[in-house]
Amino acid sequence: MNKRDILMKTRSAHLGQDRSLEFAKAIDLSLSNWLLAVRMYRDVSESDDWDNRRSPHALKIDCIYLIAKKNNKKTSRNKFTKLTKEMFGVSTQPRPNDWKPQFKDIVEGYLDEVVTA
Q: Which of 35, 54, 64, 105 is the most exposed place for a label (fewest CB within 10 A)?
């Protein structure tokens, strides 16, 4: 599969409906913590400083990953990559370190709100 095919498959996998809640449930993340991840995603993506270095889908996966890690969910980048491949047909590796330092205040604010089980 060439890069163009991969991009088309990625685009079609994420058109229309947001399946992030389904993904959060698959990793056993609570509704309240999923909502924190969605709010973090919105605050980062709507910031004037956001430069789209990650796709909207990848950014949301990154935010869910950060919240899950803070919530002490036994997870890893590999687990996220495999699960996104299974659920969406294309894999997404969490890479929050690509953008997190620039949005440290936003991220830390949401991580402070994480409800631990």
A: 105
